Amino acid sequence: MDLYIASAKPEVIREAMQLGAVGVATNPSVVAEVGQPWRKVLKDVAEAFDGPFLVQVIARDVDGIRREAGEFHNIVGNRLIVKVPMSPIAISAMRQLQREEFVVMITTIVTLAQGLVAAQAGADHLGVYVGRAERAGIDPYALIRGLRQVIDRRGLATKIGVGSINDVPALVGSALAGADHAAPIFDVLRDAIAHNVTERSLVRFEDDWNNIPSSGDGLISGVAAVSVAEGR
Q1: Would you please indicate which residues are annotated as catalytic (active-site) residues?
Q2: Deepest of 77, 88, 99, 125, by most Cβ within 10 A of its Cβ?
Q3: SS3 of 27, please?
Q4: What is the dihedral sign for C-alpha 112, 66, 72, 32?
Q5: Domain extents for the chain?
Q6: Residues 6+ apart with CB under 8 A from 104
Q7: Quick check: pTM over 0.70?
Q8: C-beta of residue 10 within 8 angstroms of C-beta of residue 17
Q9: CATH homologous superfamily for the domain 2-193
């Protein structure tokens, strides 16, 4: 599962890229958090990394969606993935955008029925909302597993992306259920790396290293090296 980062803050994005993220996922709420004009926000984000960039439209009609997608493309370029919230209009707009060679994600997916319709219609990506689905009493992992099964059985090219990832269990659960990519907030990415057992192990390794007799040249002896390498 590829990791994206749900952020529109360049400093956060750069740090996330150092931790293994390969793309950025935004939505109107994420962009609004920056407190600057959206064109400047997208331009600054686009300059902070070079991977896939998900940007969500606001318009509710096909012409408006096409117009916004064109504006996004002028800023982001060919790595743009246009996010269109699920609706009948979204399916029509998606097909038009794809004819214009845009890559499209149908997002705000919280039910299997929604995902099946979007996938069968040819969506390039599905955007499953994990946290929001859970809060609504919906099992998002059963949803992802169901979509994975249908997509694989039919040989569809649609990828399953997951957003609204606000804790590590949601990230892990999405991966195990079969998501292709996930966009956690930065705190989740950081928390996924840390664990107190790991931290205690590092302290133990440092203590053991400092107790190794010195050979006088700053290097450890062969026997001690083997002992350290085996992770005592």
Answers
A1: 83
A2: 125
A3: coil
A4: negative
A5: 2-193, 196-229
A6: 81, 82, 83, 84, 94, 97, 98, 123, 124, 125
A7: yes
A8: no
A9: Aldolase class I (3.20.20.70)
